[in-house]
Design goal:
The chain is built from 19 helices and 26 strands. The protein is α/β, with parallel strands linked by helices. It has a 9-stranded mixed sheet with strand order 14-15-16-13-9-12-11-10-17. Strands 18, 19, 20, 21, 22, 23, 24, 25 and 26 form a 9-stranded mixed sheet that branches. Helix 4 packs parallel to helix 5 (110-126). The longest helix has 28 residues, at 250-277. It starts with a strand and ends in a 7-residue tail after the last helix. Bound molecules: magnesium ion (MG). Magnesium ion binds next to loops.
């Protein structure tokens, strides 16, 4: 399908918007009139610029408050339209979007609306222009696509058709099934937007909270599939009004937009394939939808890689040994150390000529890569490329195993490895360390938490959702002593991968302070799972790891809140273990280390009875304790 984006969705000057759209490989753009007004050139020059970049102008918008008005207003409106048609001629824009009237001057009269739109279409036809009529969810009299279609039918003009906008339909909970009944050639244009479900007036919701399909809660794929079933084959065009998008880098937003459309196409293909299986299902109509390698089957985390420098390497190494890992050995050719515990591996990378070092320069000591076990690594790498992510391969020495990864939005890497991967392959065993040293019975990585700048959340959500097939849980709002933190976990269905994302608008919270100066985002939490939390917590203590002290009040409250017995409470209290329980009796035990240079911390968790959360009830206590431990100078 042709892919388009409205200029209003991106920040910057018209030139910056067009360059960003072209770089993200859009076929076309909807020109929003304001972008022309602020453009330092005329409409013809805007057209030439788009042409130079290989972009078609798919639509000119918006034209407001036109139909169902008294005759004197109607005449003025026609004059107004003629001037826009002149402009569209210069732009070489083939279609104008007319939004349903919101003016108190308009009347509830479909016959009049149809007659006036017919006249408009007649004038447009003379210029070779089409009119796409769109129902605004807050229109004075016309608010649904069904009503628009009724009026378009009454008007009966070849140059007048329906514009569909997923937001207006889905925000009103209107059923999109009727779209399939509209002849495909009378659906002139499709604008797509998603949004979080919010309880607010629909106008403000639309103007400030739209997001790309896949970033919100609407079934945009189901909506779009109806139009394609009807025979629509025009562009799929993103029209996003969002305060954060308008402030963010247009290049990043355009790239996200393209990723979102590709992900949407994959979902529509899935819906079509499902439908075609039904007995007696009609064949087609088929349009050209992308067909990427399927979503991966991820089996968990194979390893974590930290970027370090010689001064932090030793200290972090001690922490990792404190967590029960054993120093396994050094890399054959690189300044890299491997630590192991059971099937878990942690790599400290201090190699000067490496990806890790370049990451270190921007992020300081940090997790620069994670390794994921995947059923079919090559398929996942190709899938990532289809969705616009970069593939990464570092130089390898003779006889070393090559390893490919996917570049994440902050420049960190997700390496993808298959079941034959041996993390120790390129390492020389460190004979000084006894192999039999007892470990802490951590079984696997439970979750890896990332702190993000607030305006990057949607980018990461879409990245993990489209490429890795992770699905978001609900958004939690957690109080830090110095501001609110929002948190949302992304997981796969087998729960072998759990990535909670957190961000805060305040720059004084624990989450905000863990952000790095340059790109911001980064891992701020690594949680390991155990089947013996009390044993594990005791071992951490015995190994001298700095445990986060939990205040007495927490345990008093816990006892009262959950009706726990004194013995159990004193067991928890003795080793700073926090506790949570879900509605069906599943339990969660967890203990935190203090923060490493205020950048990240470790956690050991134990889940029982199918507990599927992250102890959100305890997060405020943890953040308050972390704030107390922070260097006084950083809490200004
Ligand atoms: Mg619209």
């Amino acid at each position: 399908m042709r892919r388009s984006i409205a200029t209003v969705s991106l920040s910057g000057s018209l030139q910056e918007k067009l360059i960003a759209a072209a770089a993200a490989r859009f076929d076309g753009v909807e020109i929003f009139e304001n972008d022309l007004l602020f453009f330092d050139g005329n409409a013809r020059e805007a057209r030439l610029m788009a042409e130079q970049l290989g972009l078609k102008i798919t639509l000119f918008q918006p034209f407001r408050d036109f139909e169902a008005v008294p005759v004197d207003v109607f005449r003025r409106n026609l004059d107004r339209a003629e001037r826009k048609f002149d402009l569209m001629g210069e732009l070489d824009a083939p279609m104008m979007l007319v939004c349903s009237n919101i003016s108190p001057l308009s009347v509830d009269d479909d016959e009049l609306a149809a007659a006036q739109l017919h006249d408009l279409a007649e004038r447009a036809a003379a210029r070779g222009i089409k009119i796409a009529y769109e129902a605004l969810a807050w229109g004075a009299h016309v608010r649904t696509y069904g009503h628009v279609w009724k009026i378009v039918q009454k008007a009966g003009h070849s140059h007048l058709g329906v514009a569909l906008d997923s937001f207006h339909t889905l925000a009103l909970n209107d059923d999109p099934k009727g779209i399939a009944e509209i002849p495909g050639d009378k659906i002139f244009f499709m604008q797509l937007a998603d949004a979080p479900r919010l309880n607010m007036d629909v106008l403000s919701w639309s103007r400030h909270f739209r997001c790309f399909p896949g970033q919100g809660d609407f079934d945009v794929a189901g909506f779009t599939a109806q139009a394609i079933a009807a025979g629509y084959s025009g562009p799929l065009s993103l029209e996003i009004f969002n305060d954060e998008f308008r402030a963010a880098s247009p290049a990043r937003m355009a790239k996200d937009g393209m990723r979102s459309l590709l992900y949407l196409e994959e979902q529509i293909r899935g819906i079509q394939t499902e439908k075609a299986r039904a007995p007696g299902a009609p064949k087609g109509p088929w349009v050209d939808l992308i067909d990427p390698p399927p979503q991966p089957n991820l089996k968990g985390l194979a390893f974590l890689e930290f970027a370090v420098d010689p001064s932090t390497e030793a200290e972090l190494g001690q922490w990792i040994e404190g967590l029960g890992f054993r120093r396994h050995g050094r890399h054959k050719t690189k300044d890299v150390t491997l630590y192991r515990q059971g099937s878990l591996s942690i790599v400290l990378n201090a190699e000067a000529e490496s990806f890790a070092h370049s990451y270190y320069l921007f992020h300081g000591v940090s997790v620069c890569a994670v390794g994921l076990w995947a059923d079919d690594p090559e398929a996942l790498l190709r899938r990532a490329e289809v969705f616009g992510a970069q593939r990464f391969e570092e130089r390898v020495g003779p006889d070393e195993a090559p390893m490919a990864g996917i570049r994440s939005p902050d420049g960190s890497l997700v390496y993808v490895v298959g079941e034959n991967f041996n993390p120790a392959r390129d390492f020389t065993r460190d004979l000084a360390t006894p192999a039999s040293e007892t470990s802490i019975s951590t079984l696997e990585v439970d979750h890896v938490g990332q702190a993000l700048p607030g305006d990057q959340f949607d980018t990461w959500l879409l990245y993990y959702r489209s490429i890795f097939g992770l699905q978001p849980a609900e958004t939690l709002v957690l109080p830090d002593p110095y501001g609110l933190v929002k948190s949302r976990a992304l997981t796969n269905s087998s729960r072998t991968i759990r990535f909670p994302l957190s961000f805060s608008e305040s720059n004084r919270t624990v989450v905000a302070r863990s952000l790095t100066t340059f790109s911001g985002a980064g891992v701020n939490q690594v949680a390991f799972a155990t089947d013996d939390i009390f044993g594990a917590a005791r071992q951490l203590q015995d190994r001298g790891l700095k445990i986060l002290p939990i205040p007495e009040n927490y345990y008093d409250d816990l006892a009262a809140r959950l009706g726990l017995d004194d013995n159990f409470i004193s067991q928890l209290r003795a080793i700073n273990v926090l506790y949570d329980r879900d509605a069906s009796g599943g339990e969660f035990f967890h203990v935190y280390t203090q923060s490493f240079q205020e950048r990240f911390f470790f956690e050991i968790v134990q889940r029982t009875g199918g507990y599927d959360q992250y102890g959100a009830a305890n997060a405020p206590v943890r953040m308050a304790a972390q704030a107390r431990m922070a260097r006084p100078s950083s809490v200004d």
